[in-house]
Amino acid sequence: MWWLVAAAGLGIPLVLTAMPEFGMMAVGAIAAAIGASLGLGAVAQVLLFVVVSVALIGVVRPIAARHRTQHPQLATGTEALKGRQAVVLERVDGSGGRIKLAGEVWSARALDTEQVYEPGHQVDVVEIDGATAIVM
């Protein structure tokens, strides 16, 4: 019974601090409670608690750290439009123009202010500046 109380007690700081280690120790306490219900002695219960808690922390923490440092592999929003090709609808130069990008009409301007793209040309989107696509 005391292991279940310990598990509940470890759940409180888990909720308050959002530190997953407390949750992993709570699972260790539940494992020790199961061991106690199977008739294990006090030393075996404590060892079961320690082994399960340390194993969970040792396995789950590196996985969580790796996921925290990974960047999303799926680009969304304007980031997804960078590098895509578009078709010039209205003449695009350094001051402006129109392109069709991802099925939508966008205002655009040339990256190189000297460059001019005529209707029908394929251009590459280099950057999105507000609602304007910068193309080359």
Using brief descriptors, characterize the structure shown.
5-stranded mixed barrel; alpha+beta; 3 helices; OB fold (Dihydrolipoamide Acetyltransferase, E2P); 136 residues
Q: What's the total helix number? A: 3
Number of strands: 5
- Global morphology: rod-shaped
State the end-to-end distance.
Answer: 70 Å
Radius of gyration: 29 Å
Strand order of the largest sheet: 1-2-3-5-4
Helical fraction: 40-55%
How many distinct domains? Answer: 2
Strand content: 25-35%
* Overall residue-averaged pLDDT value: 89
SSE-based structural type:
alpha+beta
Order of helices and strands: HHHEEEEE
**Largest sheet entry:** 5 strands, mixed, barrel
Protein name: NfeD-like C-terminal domain-containing protein
Domain NfeD-like C-terminal: 79-135
Subcellular location: Membrane
Keywords: Membrane, Transmembrane, Transmembrane helix
